[in-house]
Amino acid sequence: MAPHWYCLFLGVMLTQGLLALSPIPVPEEEWIEFSRMLRDPQYRLPRTSVPQKYQVTLTPYLDIASTPTVSPFTFDGAVTIELTVLEATNEIVLHCNDLIIHELTLTTATGVAVGLESNTFVCEMPYSFLRVRASSQLSANTQYILKSRFSGNLQTNMRGFYRSWYKDSNGQKRWLGSTQFQPGHARQAFPCYDEPSFKALFDITIIRDSTLQPTVSNMPIKVTTNVSGRISETFHTTPKTSTYLLGFIVSDFEIVATNKNVTHPFYIYARTTANETGNFALEMGIKLLDIMTEYTKIPYYDMAPNIDMKQAAIPDFSAGAMENWGMLTYREAFLLYDEDNSNHWYKQRIANVIGHEVAHQWFGNLVTCSWWDNLWLNEAFGRFYQYYLAEMGAPEMGFNTRFIVEQLRVSMLSDSVDSAHALTNPDVNDPASVSAHFSTITYARGASMLRMTQYLLGDETFVKGLRKFLEARKFDVADPNHLFSALDEAAREDGALANYDGVTVESYFRTWSERAGHPLLTVTVNQTSGQVRINQARWERDTGKSQYSQIWQIPVTWTRANASDFDDLKPSLMITEAAASFDRGSTGPEWILLNKQQTSFYRVNYDHNNWILLTRALRSNSRTAIHEFNRAQLVDDLFNFARAGLHTYNTVFNILSFLEFEDQYTPWISAITGFNFARSRLAYDSANLQKLDNLILSLSKAIVARLGYVEKPGEPFLDGLLRTSVMNFLCNIGDEQCLSTAKTTFEQWRNGGRIYPNMRPWVYCNGLRQGTAEDFTFFWNKYLNEQLATEVVVMLTAAGCTKDTTGLETFLSAIINAEEIIRPQDVSTALSSAVTSNEENTMKVFNWLKRNLVQVNSALGSASTFISNIGGRLRNEAQITEFQNWLDENRVTLGAAYTTGVNSIASTRSNMAWSAKRLSEFTTYFDKGYVEEELDLDEAEEGEEGDPEEDTGDDASIAALSTVLLLITVSINMYV
Fold first, then answer.
1. Do 201 and 219 contact (CB within 8 A), yes or no?
2. What is the pTM of this model?
3. Active-site entry in 332, 357, 590, 662
């Protein structure tokens, strides 16, 4: 289907997005190629004319046998565009790409022909322009009609109007045609004004083969007729919409679930073998659509006459999902759920994804960002509401809890380098800066900004402002000013910002949306007087301090030990300067803690005494008096402070010793992330890595005691989800009971037993790690016969865990197999599994690559991803030398992948240097363990006007490495 190189590229980008558990289209991948258009005026359409209405007719050829005279996987088309010329001009410019224009005419609205300079029309690349030049000037403010006949190709890269396939119950390959038009691929289906601001009405007609099921599109079918043995289906007129939100599916898909509601119809479409796996998506979809209707006070079913709601599972899909108005499309794994075989992660994922796409029907479809440089107006709302809606629809899944670790924390990491981009950046002009503009920051950081604003204004005011925004801009486009104006109007009406000295939503939000990065608040407490001083400065993750100086308007909440209140989340002060102070309201030793429930987007570092007081509290029986989210915040902040050298690892481990008593979700998810980074840095020193693993095992006793190793019937949803993460982690570091449980359960499965879905990720992996060649063969045969997409991905993720060389090479060969044993959309998942699932597999994969380099280049287009993964996992000088020599010998064949390999070696050397420089911090704690520290109140009073004490030993600073580490950010991210 799709070229493997392209799908691998998409998959790598998707994997990066999955670090943030992005459920969505993680469109970072598609924006890269498209990004050159974003700010370069040469790629933008002139606004001398605008469309009002399209009539689009397409005839796709999927059944090759029934159309022998037609080239397979092509389509014929015709379009009529009613347009208005706004300014006098002799040229109409619109988009087309990979289309052959057979005929084109231009007339006035009354049917008078307009003379054209030429009868030959081509799609002008690289701009994708279709220029229609008139012989005389076209009149301003006048209606014209453009008609065209054309033909095109069903794409193979999961963009535009493309082809996909699946196997039916008889093993027969069935072809289908589907669409993915965001951000600018509608032009591959028909000539159009393919930018979001050119909204119009659409009448779509599909003429399909009679052997297929009725076509699915944005609107329901209005008229069905026979046309020369084929079936013509014309759909009801769409709402006024952007081209990227159009969609259609030509297939033999069936309705696998429906609410059978005549006035509010809702359907789930999928392949014929999907059975009842659409039921959960139907249940969640109906619930979330109703919640969003009530929330916005704009009923979905009133958005257009005859509108319905359809969700479809596509076998090959580059994004996670797509919000086509009225016809949401998804990867199968993100829509089809099997109660007996899909795990908790996919259950919450499906609810999460549906929430995102449902939210887009309002934020994105009804009101659309005016141009992609303000994409966050679409995607930040989608990301925010995928948690907010799902929490209301399925509170047992803990979406509010998971937003913090899955979105806020991950986006803070991406946002903490000096090269990070702002949400809205008016200075984005060159292709490189625009490419970077579409990222986790746009989605997850944007969502975190909305969450922070919700708590600042209060939920009622926030909702009121959003309703004003939607009502004012419906069926139109918007920019950030429209949002700020609506929220400020609501804030004035409710007095929501009255206590913040003239701060407005606009002034506050612009400090966050038009500036990259986020602050570190450095807090100094005079424990005698109770005076608290706060300094803000931009945080940088490798050195602790950015090279850029900037000030945010920061909403601050705080509480203290003897009057703790973690529930009042309305900010008590707004910091607008570099420094601020307030009175704690008490005297004597007492901890203070900022950012209750981590509602705001910043890190907090305290002075030495306050850390001692927090450590004592965390290790005491009153540990849970500190909110779970804040215990997790402390864990995450401390690991990041250690990474940057702001505190030594022995100091941080001393505070984090409280984990031996901790057994809740968010602290442990944060701890696993932090420990994994530390483990990656000790990977070159097996003896000390083992000591770190032993430390982790000792700290995990409480969480293991509460969860156990085996799923418990009726347990809380989050416990099942957490156990999967904890067991994956503990098995990786050698927990004996985890490994024993995995081995026994895997053997029972081979003998006809069943593995609980939530246990499969770690049982499959560690069963294979401890297994034989026969174990892998059994497992692989199961994979080859598996059709449930959620299970397919779980198995691919585990397949690389085998230590059997023959089995590993079978897996690697499948990745580049032309028969698509592994679907293109899953290639990157498989490749990552093969290279990174076992330490000893790195060199095995390298040896296989040396023998199969030509085949890898042919199948994937490049060996870059293989090489990057291998180079980043070399553990000693001998391996580095062998790898470098091979790179040099094959430089011509490798092409650009050679540079990738050299850079990966540089990354590995930098990591080794970091490890050597910081190692003594680890060994200090390994030798001494937890040390009870004493307060030094005299020192605190003397240092009141200074910054909090930092660890300043030789091992604490890595400033000398900062430049190199900045260059290897991507590699670091892969470990984190």
1. no
2. 0.91
3. 357
